[in-house]
Amino acid sequence: MEEPPAKKVRVHFGSLEEQEKKRLAEEAVTKSEESDATNKIISAAVRAGIEAGNINIDIAEDEAMEVATMPDTRHHELIAEFERRKQVKTIVVPTDDAKVKAILREYREPICLFGEGPANRRLRLRALLSEHGEGGVIREEPPPQPSAPEPGSNKVWYHEGPAELMAARYAVAEYSVARAEQRLKAARAEAIKPGPEKAAKKMELHKGLRKLANSCSQIGDDRPISYCNFSPNSKLLATASWSGLCKLWSVPDCELVRVLRGHQERAGAIVFHPQATISLPPTALAMASCAADGSVCLWNLESDTPMTELGGHHDRVSRLSFHPSGRLLATACFDKSWRLWDLESKTEILHQEGHSRAVFNVCFHPDGSLAGSCGMDAFPRLWDLRTGKCVMLLEGHLQNVYAMDFSPSGYHIATGGGDHIVNIWDIRKGDKIYTIPSHTNLVSHVKFQGTYGHYLVTSSYDNTAKVWAHPGWTPLKSLAGHEGKVMCVDTSPDQEYFATASYDRTFKLWEKE
Question: Which of 103, 107, 377, 415 could serve as 356's disulfide partner, Cβ 3.0–4.6 Å?
């Protein structure tokens, strides 16, 4: 039986607005019907799955998972930080900067940071105390009263040196006393000379120095030349190079005499024995050299290989110097120490510490009684070889000190370094007496005239070497001509020649016109 056809009802809307409302109503009804149909289909499928056993909806009570409530850690951190800052403000620290540093040292913290002043240091201490949970006022404990030592409780706090060191100290004392007597006798004889005569000789000497000219320029190696030194008879010049080679040159023609091969690293210096080429035979010890690998080689004048090597340095050896007696050799090492060697037994008899940073240079007093050392800590020191004590600390440089030399007068010292100046010190006064604004770059070497100390020669990384009058410290001559840093300068014992060694791989010989 067929159903009767549905009656069509026509509704007439009088406006477009009414027609739009009708359309939206019909769309809403259609969507609702489609959603209900979809839900019915899904429900029927779920029921079919449950009946087939493919879907299990039974949940046991012990299988229920509870949602844990997590604490707000960020909130607690903020509260703790707020309490810490509040506690920091209540902590009272000392206003004395020395006491603040002492407390920081107790906590094993740096006592000073780069660019930190006393006020910032107090703030850092206050924050440190708050972290350790120590608030309130820091009470200063009274210094402990020294108690009387118990009888028999005294102990030796120093390390006793070997017997060779004691013998060397006695030998140095005997040698230095005799040399001091000779020096003082010569000084008295010079003092009684007429003043005009001494002034005329000094003026003539300074006039000749103003006429210094380059007489020879020689390419010494294929690497920078780090050091140069005249032989005691002024007939030879020894040079050391970063290639590890040391060479001997004839003076004044600058012809190569011998190549000394013994170092594997950069050679830092080579120096002559005080009696070499004068009283010692050619087969005897004549020279000593050092290198960046810590090797120290001893040479004679006949062989191109070292006689022996002094072992024991574990860091760079930058400079070395013979004692005026020729029996001892001092080496400056980058392990913050300098060492003294007995050349008769070829053994180390003194390992002298005391510098806080690397030691760069070491030299001896003309009498042989004192040794001077300088380095990267900016504080040169004087040591009494007869007692082993540090007798003077030279405070006046602001940067590393690379050069140091004693005047033949015995009471003046010249030091130069990275602050571009040369300081003159008086041992008798124990203080600095003059500052020479000598160069525009670091001072690499200083050298007094070997006889009377009437002038001083300095070299620098500004590519020049300069001659200065003494006394007065007025400039006499600027030795210019190198294309690189001047690493070293030396004067011949006969006062006829000057030598400069440079980074440009050349050395130059200078003499009076």
Answer: 377
Provide the token pair at 165: 């060191």
CB 365 within 8 A of CB 348: no
- Spell out the domain ranges in the chain: 80-131, 163-512
Secondary-structure percent of the chain, ordered helix, strand, coil, rounded to 5: 25, 30, 45
**372 closest CA partner among 420, 316, 423:** 423
How far out from the chain centre does Cα 56 lie?
Answer: 79
**Tens-digit pLDDT profile for residues 47-74:** 777 677 666 655 444 555 554 454 567 7
Tokens of 33: 């019907």
Task: Write phi, then psi, for 127 (nearest 5 degrees).
Answer: -65, -35
Q: Is residue 376 classed as helix, strand or coil in its secondary structure?
A: coil
183/186 Cα distance (integer angstroms)? 5
Rg value, the chain, Cα: 43
Return the ∠ at Cα 166 (arms to 162 and 167), rounded to 5°.
110
Contact 418, 432 (CB under 8 A): no
Q: What pLDDT, on the 0 to 100 scale, is given for residue 417? A: 94
* Alpha-carbon gap, residue 157 to 196, rounded angstroms: 57
| Under-70 pLDDT residues of the chain | 1-18, 21, 29, 32-35, 37-40, 42, 50, 53-72, 88, 133-159
Neighbours of 414 (CB within 10 A): 27
Architecture of domain 163-512: 7 Propeller (2.130)
The whole-number pLDDT of residue 82 equals: 78
Which helix (H) or strand (E) covers residue 87, if one does? helix 73-90
